[in-house]
Amino acid sequence: MSIEFLLTSLVVVLLPGTGVIYTLAVGLGRGFKASIAASIGCTFGIVPAAIASIIGLAALLHTSALAFQVIKYLGAAYLFYMAWNTLKDRGTMDVNEERSSKSFGKIIMTGTLINVLNPKLSLFFLAFLPQFVSANAANPTVELINLALVFMVMTFVVFVGYGAFAAAARDYVITRPAVLNVIKKCFAGVFGFLGAKLALAE
Among 44, 33, 192, 47, which Cα is nearest to 111's? Predict the structure, then answer.
């Protein structure tokens, strides 16, 4: 595994996207443990894209305009829902001391769906992973799987870091409702912007 792959993956994972925004929102709203659940969900959401790229299904999204459009609009609609849900009193950024396993399960599911409903993620893996397969690899499929696993581990670790940062700022936010309200609107705006951007993607 090359240092180029590790560095490139780190840059990609660090770039703020829907998963990062969601993890930050959950960390601010519900604390560090909940942000770990969000990180797990976002990481699980990578699995279908990785599998699709490895077995070639992502090529279907690239060649079939209909398949891409269907998944694209589902993903955009879900992001718009996230924008609306973030603004609700008991939505994504609900500041709540009750952290049941059920709520963690819902956080994981939401994080998973955010990435599953993003067709650009499958296309990214289709274009990204093969570049780092050794020309003399005995089993390219196994190497692709290993690269995908490393990318997922890196995603989880970085997202946990984002969540820890957000959770550390939680006490400050809790004592300042006006600040929380502004942050909610900002996150909702970002989710809405990302949804519109995905809806307009070619």
Answer: 44
